[in-house]
Amino acid sequence: MRLALLVLPALLLLSSCSQFRDRPPVQVAVFSQGSDMDLPKSVFQREIGGKTVTLKVIPEFTQDSIVAFHSFAADDGTQGICLQLDVKGRNALEVTTRLRQGEILASMVNGSVVDFVKIDNTVSNGLFTIWRGIPAELVTKMDEFYPRIQTLKQSGGDSSASSMDMTPSTSSEKKEAFRRSRERAKPQEAVKPGTAVPLSKALQLQ
Q1: Cβ–Cβ contacts within 10 Å for residue 185, how many?
Q2: What is the pLDDT of residues 123-180, one digit of tens each?
């Protein structure tokens, strides 16, 4: 009995460590604009674009909805990222951009507001861009957890931009998509001229 009591905490510790390793290296939360009419506990305020803006406490989507990403150089010397969202995140983004035209969506990364956009059209393809504010080292860490958008498409995670229902949604699907993208990203084996190659191998090398 005493041994069992000692083993249980160890198992719980191992479980928590495993969950910690699976935790994304970046915490992303995108918030829609609130108002003074909202309950005080349901909103918070941040300085955005030189003005105090009221935001809703509950985000429209978080890093849990990220399936893949693409990075690019921002004008201010930081990095921007385009995020491909799963079905849940895509639906939330579409509803928000459809119903809240003219309002602000604020992007918070690791606890700080780094960017904001003004909603001027409905976004239905599940793609959301944070245009600036991402450190280069954070992009490097994201590469260890998320596939790149183009690599994900090439590995079969998304058949086309208009077929977002094929996008991985569950945790296991996202892990499998990441595994396939890494396999796809591996350099292909070189074949010397005149070397006989089995047909199955030749197809893989094309």
Answers
A1: 13
A2: 999 999 999 999 999 999 999 999 999 876 655 544 333 334 445 445 555 455 445 5
Judge whether 84 and 151 are in contact, CB under 8 Å: no
- Classify burial at 134, counting beta carbons within 10 Å of its beta carbon; exposed 0-12, middle 13-18, buried 19 or more: buried
Q: What is the pLDDT of residues 167-185, one digit of tens each?
A: 544 555 545 544 554 545 4
Residue 18, in any domain of the structure: no
CA 203 – CA 113 distance, rounded (Å): 47
Element (H, E) at 98: helix 87-99
Q: Is 3 domain-assigned? A: no
Name the average pLDDT for the chain.
76
- CATH number of the domain at 121, please: 3.30.1360.200
Decide if pLDDT at 52 tops 70: yes
- How many domains does the chain contain in total? 1
Report in angstroms the alpha-carbon separations of 51 from 46, 47, 88, 101, 150.
8, 5, 31, 19, 37
Q: What letter represents residue 125's amino acid?
A: N
